[in-house]
Amino acid sequence: MQGSFPIPDPDADLRRALTRHRLLATSLLVGMGALLVGTYAMPPGYWTDMLQAAAKAGVVGGLADWFAVTALFRHPLGIPIPHTAIVPNQKERLGRALGRFVSSHVFTEAEMRRVIARLDLARIIQRFLADPEASRPAAAALARSMPKLVASLEDGRAKRLLVRLLPRIVSGPAGARLVARVLRAFVASGRHQEVFSLAIGQLKVLLTAREEALREAIAARIRAEGGAVIGWLAGARVANRVLAAVNAELEKVEPEDSDLRAAFAVWLSHEIEKLETDPERAEAIGRVLREALAQPSVAAWLMDVWARLRTALIADAARPDGRTVALLTGIFANAGTLLAEDPAARDRLNQAVERVLATLMPSAQAQLSDFIAGVVGNWDAKAAADKIELRVGRDLQYVRMNGTLVGFLAGGVLFALLTAVFGRVAS
Questions:
Q1: What residues form the membrane-spanning segments (predicted)?
Q2: Interatomic CA distance for residues 39 and 54, integer angstroms
Q3: Which of 68, 80, 184, 377 satisfies CB 3.0 to 4.6 Å to 92 for a cystine?
Q4: C-alpha 288: how far from its chain's center?
């Protein structure tokens, strides 16, 4: 059978210090009592009477302070004198008072702002976000929680949310800015030229497939305008020349450095600028987007996109090396870079934290006060008195010693003054 080991007392050092100081204060009081008794064996005279009066006052002062200190934590000599054992009997009231004091004078808005200013929370957050080793576990934890979040969002609720939010996002200037931002990224990546090339290629395929029909249409137009003879003589020739000219122009457009391509890029840049600066154009784009989103086919497409996105997100978020973790890590890194390079952003973050904490402060103060009062109120009466005495009892023993010494000095001075005024003092 394994032997049991005693649990070390965490307050052992405090307990030994209290015992030592209590013994010192008691010894001083006992010594003062011995001095008082000794004065009765001394030859009578002025100095003996003064010493005796001083010793009496010292004993009374020491006893009074012993009584006061003891009455805080227990009944003196075990006698249930009224208004003694104050801490055990009044621990609920003391707990409430302590809670109110801490919440009103320690945990204050001014102190909170001072601590935040000293800590610079924005700098701490920036260092955390800029460190991949620190931010990646946070990104992984956030990614693991996303499937539960997505799974808790029902498809019907997601549809209603999309239906409400998307029209607001794309309405007016917001939608125009979004389209302009997408087009700028499109132009910056050179994808607009790919679209242009695709359009030219499709046009050439269409002209090749419809060449005979176009030739007949041109010839018929010439006959209608110039008569049957002109149409018979020149219709086919003009149609061929027109189609040849169109194909030649399309061939000129196809190279990467063609003038039409450059003109298309300039036109697209102007249109993007109009989207960002022209309110009428922004309103028109917003109206078109709202009308498009109102179409049932577009709503069905959005729900299909949501379903695919949801499935892919749930599957990817579970992988430590998935795109979700990488994306969140990148977002954290970008946020850290922004905070590192933009002092104004750090100031805004600190101010935002201060505003949030200031808003929560009244509720937090009330909860802290109730918490402290509850903790102290739930303490065992003897344990509460013991905890408090161990932490302040040593200083209270100095109160006892000071009471004994101050009483001794006050008694001697008072004896000298009274004797000087009245000539004698009753013993």
A1: 23-41, 404-426
A2: 10
A3: 377
A4: 40
